[in-house]
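Please, structure for the following, as tokens.
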Amino acid sequence: MSINFEDDMNNEVREKILEMFSEDVAGMDEKTALINKTEFTQRGMKELANIAKQPATLEIHNEGDVKTMSDGTQYRVTPTGWVKILDDKGDV
């Protein structure tokens, strides 16, 4: 799944995402957090939105889905979670 914000996340919401999902955070940029966990609560999402002072959108992804981060890095959903996609040369 991914948690998305329209505007940049503040530091407090970034810290809260890391606290809530700890080792399940596969990647994060200014507006998106990729999470390798399928359990979440409505209360937790509401708390994130309140801390961010903006709506938080939860996206559920299927195996094979690709998400592009703000720096151009791409991640693909695999059976074990999000994996960073390597370029043609095998580099990250």
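The first helix runs from residue 11 to 21. The chain has a mean pLDDT of 91.
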